[in-house]
Design goal:
5 helices; 6-stranded antiparallel beta sheet; 258 residues
Length: 258
């Protein structure tokens, strides 16, 4: 009588375990555990940090990117930062050309036909491609440097300051060889020049990342409308005075021949 009772009990336990979804072979258990741990290990976050250096109307935008884990042969990968420049800022294309010649930064504007002297209310958003460089002090880090400048803003009635929001950039990556870990971060493919001085087009992976700051917010001083009359009057007087001094110097020290 004991044997049949034990058999019935065993069958009942097996049915309960199967209904609960707990039955699996040892090999399946190992493979699933390995898969889950592998995904957790390879899908760590990319961390992006942006900060603005220097004071005044001329700033430096510094971007640092840290990969969540070590990737072998990361030097075979290139990182491209597509930075969106709001209307309150501008990037000088001539300055970028000079910095490229001195090998300080590798950046180029997507469109260069815009007026760098225009105020913010007559300007449009622009885009800059920055080819980031590997950080010599961090094996899994990239960094990029971009000089930006404030545009003039409309004077305000009361508040003597305004704010510029710099949105987070697009992070593009291209590797000469396949890395399984990139599949965790890639969202889509984007076409862009392979290198700064190359006309070849590559398919870059648009990477998802975590930003230390949601967006950068810059505080800009602006003039007050109540000071308009004073500023115009002083400017006019100084212009007349300087013009008079120049004319006096010309007639006093100039040599005229008829």
């Amino acid at each position: 009588m004991a044997a049949p009772a034990v058999a019935v009990r065993a069958v009942a336990w097996l049915l309960l375990w199967e209904a609960a979804g707990f039955t699996c072979s040892p090999a399946t258990t190992f493979n699933n555990t390995h898969f889950v741990s592998g995904i957790r290990a390879t899908c760590s976050e990319i961390i992006l940090r942006q900060e603005v250096l220097k004071d005044g109307f001329h700033r430096d935008l510094l971007t640092k990117v840290k990969f969540g884990e070590s990737i072998e042969d990361l030097q075979t990968c290139r990182l491209l930062i597509k930075q969106y420049i709001p209307t309150g800022l501008f990037v000088d294309p001539y300055e970028l050309a000079s910095l490229r010649e001195r090998n300080i930064t590798e950046a180029v504007m997507v469109l260069e036909n815009f007026n760098i002297e225009a105020p913010n209310y007559l300007s449009k958003e622009s885009e800059v491609l920055i080819y980031a460089r590997q950080d010599s002090q961090c094996i899994d880090c990239f960094q990029a440097f971009l000089p930006v400048h404030y545009r003039y803003h409309r004077p305000h009635v009361k508040d003597g300051e305004t704010f510029i929001v710099v949105h987070n950039p697009d992070l593009l990556m291209y590797c000469d060889q396949e890395f399984p870990v990139l599949k965790c971060w890639a969202q889509s493919e984007v076409t862009a020049p392979c290198t700064l001085n190359s006309k070849d087009i590559c398919q870059w992976n648009n990477m998802k990342y975590k930003s230390v700051y949601k967006n950068l917010t810059l505080q800009v001083p602006v003039g007050l409308t109540i000071h308009t009359s004073l500023v115009c009057s002083v400017t006019l007087l100084i212009s007349i005075l300087c013009s008079t001094l120049i004319l006096v110097a010309v007639f006093k020290y100039g040599h005229f021949s008829l």
